[in-house]
Amino acid sequence: MNPPPIHLHSRARRGMVLFEVLVALFIFTMVAFALVMALNSSFDAATDRNEIDAAGRGLENQMVLLHAARVQPGDNDLPDDGSGILYHLTIVQEQLQDQNLQIVPNMYSATITATWKSHGQTEERDISQLIYQP
Amino acid sequence: MNTRMSRERTQRSPGNDLKNGVPFSTAALCSLRSFAAKKLLARRRQIHSFTLLEMMITLAIFILLVAAIFGIMMAVFQSTASLQDNQNRRDQIEALNGFLKKQLGEMSATATIGTYQRGNGEGLVQNGIIFGTTNSAMVIDAKVQPNGYYALRLAAFTNVVDQDQPQDARQVLQQAVTGDDSTLAWTSLIGDLKTLDWTFLDFNATQWVELWTSPSKPNLVQFSMQPAGELQPVTMDFWLPPLVATVITTGGVGGGGAGEGAGGPPPTNRAGVPRFPPPPP
After folding, report:
1. Is a pLDDT exceeding 70 seen at residue B229?
2. A50 and chain B: CB distance < 8 Å anywhere?
């Protein structure tokens, strides 16, 4: 009828509880960190998507406004529309041939490039269109 | 004999052993050990029950953890709602852009476009535009919501041909819109706009104008609006192709020759609709 080793058992139990709390806190911290990182990346993706959409809409608008003036071959920057996106227009004359292999005159290719800064990096998108201007 | 046995029994009892200075017997030792074990067990029970300090610390940790989890969950829910809201607004803007591009870009050669104002304009330079022909017209109107923002809405009107009382669909629609006719069926396009504005440009002019009453169509139409959640206004430009209305005559094309086009009524298809003459060989 020997009594159980009371002190040793009690000390082991206390150590395990502390260890468990530390492990639980570590796991909780890791999960919280992962959640915050996922949230941050989704915010970044949404911001990028917004900027790309704005650039796409701006490119379409600039291409529409191109109809207001006669096109001339050359390179020039377009006026700022206040969105922080820079637009650059390049017009070159196209040498397209018809069915009789004759060059079609007054055919131009217009390319507008949108450039903006995103997360410290330069992003770029462009749009091209053939313009016939007799 | 009996007396001796009773003496021996008396001498073996613990009380007598202690009195006589005799060491503990085995039974006495066992009873002492069981007594000590009971005391130790009781002490162990006391150790295993939580003290007030332990409970306080546990509760504090629990409250801190719950507060942290609650904060993170609330942030996640709010961010998700914000992202979803942005996505919905972006989809609405894209859909509106496509719709206006199609409607304005595909206007017929005889169609016109004009602005109108309802009352004092409800805080806007113009309340909207009416475009179309005498037979069919469409209005895109801005109306103040109860929350102070504007809602963009759409209504269409198609004229019923009446030879006795010919009427212009655009004028009928303008009277109904400026008079707040409740029978007009509206379709909501987009809501919660801080401000919106239409401007027009004729290639012969150099300045954009906000009111367009000319019978001719402008070459460019610009629509800008600022939704409630956006920091910058959204601008959409539309090009209206310069179309010239031409009269297409059917029948008698090509002058003579045998076949369908030589005299008689114009050729029709199975539905009775006049068919265009075949192209020259």
Report:
1. yes
2. yes
